């Protein structure tokens, strides 16, 4: 709770500084929270819901009775609001809730509804990594405008987020979350290890099980600062001694998964690790032995654990000014739970793409129009005019440039697939699965792209007054393989329940660098062959053609492979080959090669999706 003067105090619940999210449902329908809930859970675990935010659907069954999930979350929030009002003496007017960056509009709206039901009004929502980044800057961290940060949040799960500092704040470029890569999973594995040593320990589904789990969790947290702890279990169970070595062996696989996600988040944002201004570990689990080291191994960078990692996000949210999140739609709240499989998983909700993604999607559209304009401007019509034709009229044109314009237009439309899917989510589409919405948006985008390519051919043919066949052959056929693979990907997304680990926006993001390199290369190549070859310009024009070939080869490499070293190894021979074969007849061949490279990129996307795990409830964003 922050005060107007700038200070803040941490609320206490049942003598502690943390309110567990568990809720115990009494036979009369009343809801218990905090320590009381965990104590009753040890007696009757069938009536206990340990993590309401991880539930799917609008209701859950507790001891044979349906209970609204919204009421369970509201009970915990109400407890916090009541304690804040007791300490302050009045109802707190400005309420801010910290949410994972991966939550989409429907998920956020649902949480707003839970807060309203808890009597907290309409709270502001602050993305956890944005709050942490703001707190770091306020504390003196040097992050210039345009620089990148990686924030790794070790909570009950794990979330890795790449941010870019803009002139008006931090922007999320990519975020990945895995509920099985954080403290909750470590507690479960540690309990399993202890149960193997002492089979008499009860499971969480048995009476006393939740009491043992709470004791194990307290012991795990204490091991962050000590090498050996004694875990005091509920009577009549004997106390257990746990060492830091045992914890590290249990937590090792979980933390390595977290470090791998951190590296994947950088790859999804297409950020070179050398451009990252800092890597920061936050969340209560950041103090676990090996947590910082796992992030360092997964990213190749040197991370830093923030001060008070368990409080960094909430303190940052308290000091944030203005509305924290503008992505939450206004209007009537959606009824019930949005159907989320796990809090903040990458495939959980259909979030709007970042500003960077939208801007990056506009680049292919502009490049496509530029290629088409250059194709029309540099084509030469012989033995005829645009108003009268002789029997021997023919057109000398760079057909490869038309093919490139069509393919890049399709890429621009496919990049809108995520925007269309987000629009379906915000509009409350009946298709609840994000995979279904992504599939629908992708099919619509593919149809739009093929239509635009056809319009390119028809428009150019009408402009020159020539037969349609050659124009449609070079504008439509090149886009067919890419469109087919994209449609197959949409079917896999909609029907398999699989979700890419990098999130749907990252899965759809074709490398903008490839489009720019190939488009500029084709324009330079065509310019070198059509410009007036004055004696003093011959060398310059020849050099422009060679550079254009080099850029085309680089664009192909950027599409076919990922990672700076593989791209460098692939770009060298491709660039040299393309620069060596430049000629008027070769432009069509080079364009077809780029089409093949784009098709390979989409085939790789499809392969990654097929190999991705199936998400609960098909949630994949």
TrEMBL record:
Q: Which InterPro entries match?
A: ATPase_NBD, Hsp_70_fam
Organism domain of life: Bacteria
Listed name of the protein: Hsp70 family protein
Q: What is the source species?
A: Polymorphospora lycopeni
Pfam families from the UniProt entry: HSP70 (PF00012)
Could you tell me which SUPFAM superfamilies the record lists for this protein?
A: Actin-like ATPase domain (SSF53067)
**Which keywords appear in this protein's UniProt record, sorted alphabetically?**
ATP-binding, Chaperone, Membrane, Nucleotide-binding, Transmembrane, Transmembrane helix
Q: Where are the transmembrane segments?
A: 358-382, 402-426, 438-464, 476-494, 506-527, 547-565, 574-603
């Amino acid at each position: 709770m922050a005060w107007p003067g700038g200070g803040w105090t941490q609320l206490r619940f049942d003598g502690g500084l943390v309110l567990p999210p568990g809720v115990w449902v009494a036979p009369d329908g009343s809801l218990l929270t905090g320590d009381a809930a965990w104590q009753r859970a040890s007696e009757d675990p069938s009536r206990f819901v340990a993590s309401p935010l991880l539930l799917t659907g609008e209701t859950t069954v507790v001891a044979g009775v349906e209970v609204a999930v919204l009421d369970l979350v509201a009970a915990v929030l109400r407890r916090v609001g009541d304690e804040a009002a007791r300490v302050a003496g009045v109802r707190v007017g400005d309420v801010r809730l910290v949410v994972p960056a991966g939550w989409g509009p429907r998920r956020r709206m649902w949480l707003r509804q839970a807060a309203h039901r808890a009597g907290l009004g309409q709270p502001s929502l602050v993305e956890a990594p944005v709050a942490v980044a703001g707190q770091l800057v306020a504390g003196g961290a040097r992050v210039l405008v345009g620089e990148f940060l990686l924030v790794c949040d070790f909570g009950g799960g794990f979330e890795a987020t790449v941010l870019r500092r803009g002139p008006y704040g931090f922007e999320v470029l990519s975020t990945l979350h895995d509920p099985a890569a954080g403290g909750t999973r470590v507690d479960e594995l540690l309990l399993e290890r202890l149960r193997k040593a002492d089979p008499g320990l009860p499971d969480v589904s048995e009476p006393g099980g939740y009491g043992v789990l709470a004791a194990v969790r307290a012991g795990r947290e204490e091991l962050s600062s000590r090498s050996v702890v004694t875990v005091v279990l509920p009577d009549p169970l004997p106390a257990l001694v746990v060492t830091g070595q045992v914890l590290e062996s249990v937590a090792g696989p979980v933390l390595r998964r977290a470090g791998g996600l951190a590296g994947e988040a950088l790859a999804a944002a297409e950020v070179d690790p050398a451009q990252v201004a800092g890597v920061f570990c936050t969340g209560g689990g950041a103090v676990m032995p090996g947590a910082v080291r796992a992030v360092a191994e997964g990213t190749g960078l040197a991370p830093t654990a923030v001060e008070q990692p368990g409080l960094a996000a909430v303190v940052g949210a308290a000091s944030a000014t203005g509305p924290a999140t503008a992505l939450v739609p206004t209007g009537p709240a959606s009824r019930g739970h949005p159907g989320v499989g796990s809090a903040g998983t990458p495939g959980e909700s259909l979030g709007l793409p970042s500003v960077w993604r939208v801007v990056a999607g506009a680049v292919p559209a502009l490049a496509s129009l530029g290629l088409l304009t250059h194709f029309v401007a540099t084509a030469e019509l012989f033995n005829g005019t645009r108003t009268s034709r002789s029997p021997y009229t023919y057109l000398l044109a760079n057909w490869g440039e038309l093919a490139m314009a069509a393919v890049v237009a399709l890429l621009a439309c496919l990049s809108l697939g995520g925007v269309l899917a987000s629009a379906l989510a915000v509009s409350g589409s009946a298709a609840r699965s994000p995979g279904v919405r992504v599939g629908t948006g992708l099919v619509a985008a593919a149809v739009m792209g093929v239509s635009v390519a056809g319009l390119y051919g028809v428009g150019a043919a009408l402009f020159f007054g020539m037969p349609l066949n050659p124009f449609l052959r070079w504008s439509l056929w090149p886009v067919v393989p890419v469109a087919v693979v994209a449609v197959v990907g949409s079917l896999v997304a909609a029907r398999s329940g699989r979700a890419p680990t990098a999130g749907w926006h990252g899965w759809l993001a074709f490398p903008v660098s490839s489009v720019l390199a190939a488009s500029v290369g084709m324009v330079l190549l065509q310019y070198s062959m059509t410009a007036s070859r004055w004696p003093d310009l011959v060398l310059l024009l020849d050099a422009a053609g060679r550079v254009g070939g080099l850029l085309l080869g680089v664009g192909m490499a950027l599409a076919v492979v990922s990672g700076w070293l593989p791209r460098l190894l692939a770009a060298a021979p491709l660039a040299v080959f393309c620069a060596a074969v430049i000629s008027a007849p070769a432009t069509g061949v080079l364009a077809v090669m780029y089409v093949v490279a784009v098709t390979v990129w989409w085939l790789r996307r499809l392969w990654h999706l097929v190999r991705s795990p199936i998400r609960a409830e098909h949630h994949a964003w």
